[in-house]
């Protein structure tokens, strides 16, 4: 299997350059809020209107994205699946990328927009980040075994953040 | 980038009472959280990517048993 050097910054930059509407969620979102967790993939909730899907497909082509877990077959991301609330787990030239139609209790881009904040990662890179409170809530709603340990860290990060504010 | 929690601890004065606990009751390392919060979001992303790169390097370099 090919090992690609993970570069989340590069993935985000290509998406922003292609004017894709998205919100960063998951482990990278937790890290950007200051939570000391490790993750190997970048999770995004994308807007599912046809125009945004087209921009997303263009960005994914630039990133040479293909579906993970398809063995040696190269399967490209499918427009129809990107329109649904389901998840597309991809591998790009800059590392793993998870495109999530919805998270938690069925929340998509539109529902999450009011729970997102701007985050500047450089002079030419500003992204939308899910607020820590909503990240915690969505993980509580998902109630997966793997989220339990992370939830404790996220709740403590929120508490420490509030102390500093 | 600021020093990590381990580097910030003063080994010469281990008996000094800590102003804040190092761990939460459920075992979360609060020193790591405070360190991460002292960084900018861009630096936090850099920390994560360095950790991944380091793990990938170790996995790649590991000798077979």
Polypeptide structure, described:
The complex is a heterodimer of chains A (165) and B (65). A 5-stranded mixed beta sheet of chain A has the order 1-2-5-4-3. Chain A has 7 helices and 7 strands, in the order H-E-H-E-H-E-H-E-E-H-E-E-H-H. In chain A, helix 6 (132-142) packs antiparallel against helix 7 (147-164). In chain A, strand 6 (116-122) and strand 7 (125-130) form a beta hairpin. By secondary structure, chain A is an alpha+beta fold. Chain A starts with 7 loop residues before the first helix and ends with a helix. With 65 residues, chain B is an all-alpha fold. Helix content of chain B is 51%, strand content 0%. The longest helix of chain B has 21 residues, at 41-61. Chain B is flat and about 45 Å long. The N and C termini of chain B lie far apart (37 Å). Classes of the chains: A alpha+beta (165), B mainly alpha (65). Chain A binds chain B through residues 3, 5-9, 28, 31-32, 34-36, 38-40, 95, 119-122, 129, 152-153, 156-157, 160-161, 164, and chain B through 24, 26-30, 32-37, 39, 41-42, 44-45, 47-49, 51-53, 55-56, 60.
N→C terminal distance of chain A: 45 Å
Mean pLDDT of chain B equals: 80
Rounded radius of gyration of chain B (Å) = 16 Å
Q: Which two chains share the most extensive interface?
A: A-B, 28 and 26 residues
- How far is the first residue's CA from the last residue's CA of chain B? 37 Å
Count of helical segments of chain B? Answer: 3
Number of strands of chain B: 0
Task: Describe the sheet with the most strands of chain B.
Answer: none
Strand-pairing-aware structural class of chain A? alpha+beta
Helical coverage of chain B, percent range: 40-55%
Please give the structural blueprint:
The complex is a heterodimer of chains A (about 160) and B (about 60).
Chain A lengths: L7 H10 L4 E4 H7 L9 E5 L3 H13 L3 E2 L11 H4 L4 E6 L2 E6 L8 H4 L3 E7 L2 E6 L1 H11 L4 H18 L1
Parallel strand pairs in A: 2-5
Antiparallel strand pairs in A: 1-2, 3-4, 4-5, 6-7
Chain B lengths: L4 H4 L21 H8 L3 H21 L4
């Amino acid at each position: 299997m090919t090992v690609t050097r993970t570069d989340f910054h590069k993935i985000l930059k290509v998406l922003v350059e292609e004017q894709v509407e998205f919100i960063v969620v998951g482990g990278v979102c937790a890290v950007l809020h200051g939570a000391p967790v490790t993750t190997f993939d970048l999770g995004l909730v994308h807007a599912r209107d046809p125009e945004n899907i087209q921009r997303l497909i263009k960005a994914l082509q630039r990133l040479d994205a293909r579906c993970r877990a398809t063995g040696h077959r190269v399967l490209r991301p499918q427009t129809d699946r990107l329109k649904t609330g389901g998840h597309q787990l991809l591998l790009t030239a800059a590392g793993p990328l998870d495109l999530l139609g919805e998270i938690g209790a069925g929340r998509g881009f539109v529902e999450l927009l009011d729970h997102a904040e701007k985050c500047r990662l450089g002079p030419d890179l500003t992204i939308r980040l899910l607020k820590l409170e909503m990240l915690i809530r969505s993980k509580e709603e998902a109630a997966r075994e793997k989220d339990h340990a992370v939830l404790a860290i996220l709740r403590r990060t929120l508490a420490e953040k509030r102390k500093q504010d | 980038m600021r020093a990590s929690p381990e580097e910030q601890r003063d080994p010469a004065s281990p008996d000094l009472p800590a102003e804040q606990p190092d761990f939460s009751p459920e075992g979360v390392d609060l020193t790591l959280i405070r360190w991460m919060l002292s960084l900018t979001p861009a630096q936090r992303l850099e920390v994560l990517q360095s950790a991944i790169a380091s793990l990938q390097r170790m996995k790649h370099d590991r000798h077979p048993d």
